Amino acid sequence: xxxxLVYTASRLGLFAVTLGVLYxxxxxxxxxxxxxxxxxxxxxxxxxxxxxRDAVSEQISKGRRG
Length: 66
Description:
It comes from Sphaerisporangium corydalis. The chain is mainly α.
């Protein structure tokens, strides 16, 4: 369960940081702010959180086997 929680917390943290940075650089419309933050943090998490994602997938495959 721990790798899943670490990955989820990392994704949420990355989304929050992206949201804050985009707001500070001038994106104030709520809908565009959320959509853009979701897209940017998704791409960043694909690159930055690969190790955590691998740990989650390993945990899931171990759970299915045993």
